[in-house]
Design a protein that fits this description.
alpha+beta; single chain; 4 helices; Pnp Oxidase, Chain A
Length: 141
């Protein structure tokens, strides 16, 4: 397996659970995937959210994508350090793909609209069948 398999799984699943740290306390939340391609896994937030403050303080994250199925389904866990991406084309795409952002008053020119990606890290897949096997980590970036 390689990072292309990770991109495929992320796009098929479309929702991840994102873990951050807030003053030493783990925080996790479900997030809708913005984009996954060969350059990384992209999510979006806003500057007024606790998530943004947590990422600024500590960019290390773990994402868990879960696909229901037989015998507890399948998971992909991805870890690394995020980077903020200031790209007007991506912000335009975010506004077009996510109408709720526009309803919140955000535009592609809004400094409050934040795009971030995980471009370097490690990932591994899990199924019940592999439960007791050593993790086969996929490095990317």
């Amino acid at each position: 397996m390689d990072f292309k398999d990770c991109v495929k799984f992320a796009n098929e699943t479309n929702v991840c659970y994102l873990a951050t740290i807030d003053n030493g306390q783990p925080r996790v939340r479900a997030m809708g995937l913005f984009l996954a391609d060969e350059t990384g896994i992209y999510l979006q937030t806003a500057t007024m959210k606790d998530l943004y403050r947590q990422l600024k303080a500590n960019p290390k994250v773990e994402m868990c994508f879960f696909k229901p199925g037989e015998q507890a389904g399948a998971m992909m866990r991805v870890e690394g350090e995020i980077e903020f991406v200031d790209d007007k084309k991506l912000k335009v795409k975010a506004i077009e793909d996510r109408p709720f952002l526009k309803a919140f008053g955000l535009t592609p020119d809004s400094p409050e609209l934040i795009i971030f990606r995980l471009a370097k890290g490690q990932a591994y897949f899990w199924t019940m069948k592999d439960n007791l096997k050593p993790k086969e980590k996929i490095s990317f970036g």
